[in-house]
Amino acid sequence: MRRPAILTTMMLAPCLIAASGPQSIGQFGRWGAFRAADGASCYAIAQPSRSGREDGAYLTISSWPARRLVRQIHVRFRGVPADGAVLSIGERRFPLATNSADGWPASPADGRRIARLVREGGTLRITARIGGRRISDTYALAGAPSAIDAADLACLRER
What is the pLDDT of residues 93-117, one digit of tens each? Predict the structure, then answer.
């Protein structure tokens, strides 16, 4: 398993890093749980289980207590701009709004549905177009509920 590479990528997630880096809460299968150094957010994060290479793609589910934001879904597309992105869990498909190399659920209601489905387990797949080519990243959801709960608890303890 490529655990050191996975943990390094998780710790370097640019949208969530403060100057001194995030604090590790724990590893739950392929999912890690972290608290931002400034305590403003906590998140569960994973890399695709079968993307074919170490390419910087990841999925986060984060909470920002001071902003009253809970279980926000964020996708990083291999560090390059993507479009036409769709997140699928089982038979459910959700379009993703994209901005450069990042994606989010198209609506808050979709975000809540995705977070609920992630907790139910199975497999999550993200498809998109990058540079005119179709990509597909698969995320195993085993361990995700524990990582999400650990991140949520870490943020609650800070309040």
Answer: 999 999 988 999 999 899 999 999 9
Separation between Cα atoms, residue 101 and residue 131, nearest integer Å = 11
Q: Looking at domain 3-143, does it have CATH number 3.90.550? A: no
Q: Where in the chain are the domains?
A: 3-143
Sequence-distant (≥ 6) Cβ neighbours of residue 19 within 8 angstroms: 37
CA neighbor of 36 nearest in space, from 6, 56, 66? 66
pLDDT digits (tens, 9 = 90+) for 20-50: 789 999 999 999 999 998 889 999 999 998 6
Task: For residue 43, count CB atoms less than 10 angstroms from its CB and return exposed for 0-12, middle for 13-18, buried for 19 or more.
Answer: buried
